[in-house]
Amino acid sequence: MEPFASRPHDKMKDVLMNPAAAGPAIHYYMIRGGTDKRNTTVWETGTVGGEYIKTYGHYHIIDFKENYKIAEGEGILLLQIRKKDAEGNWIDDEIDTFSAIRVKTGDEIPIPSFAGHALVNIGNTWLITTDDSPVNLTRDSSSMPEHADYKVIEKMRGMAYYVVEKDGVPTLVRNSTYKSVPEATIS
Hints:
Layout: E1 4-8, H1 9-12, E2 26-31, E3 39-43, E4 47-48, E5 51-52, E6 58-60, E7 66-72, E8 74-84, E9 90-104, E10 108-111, E11 116-121, E12 127-131, E13 148-149, H2 151-155, E14 161-166, E15 169-174
């Protein structure tokens, strides 16, 4: 399997605030390291209908803590944890905790087990990260590895908040597809 993949505009429409808005041909590029190397992701700059370029977003379906390192640029990491029902099953449209964390070159950010996460490029340069996500190049898709659940984020039309440019400043806009979401600010 090739370790290279990209996320084109037509594959991002399901998670955009405004799916009809024009965007770049490719939103971001991925190089998967397999078991021997770290993964690298590179984001385009700009916005799509006012929403900053971002990753698709996903939840991990196995219990592990991923670590992101910001190699270049600045962004906002979105983290969310779903509520559970009485039987301990995840409730996709109810978010228990949500964080929007500013990140910049040199920052290292742990991703908690089972947290939904996406990263947004709010800068004027490439946003480049490395991570230690366990991609198995003999069976995983470089674009959507099997340890990650992208379907929930697709079903909910993105994360609980979108990050949009408002008067030159990144601003959170609530995704109305979710039934309950805590109030949030960018920290």
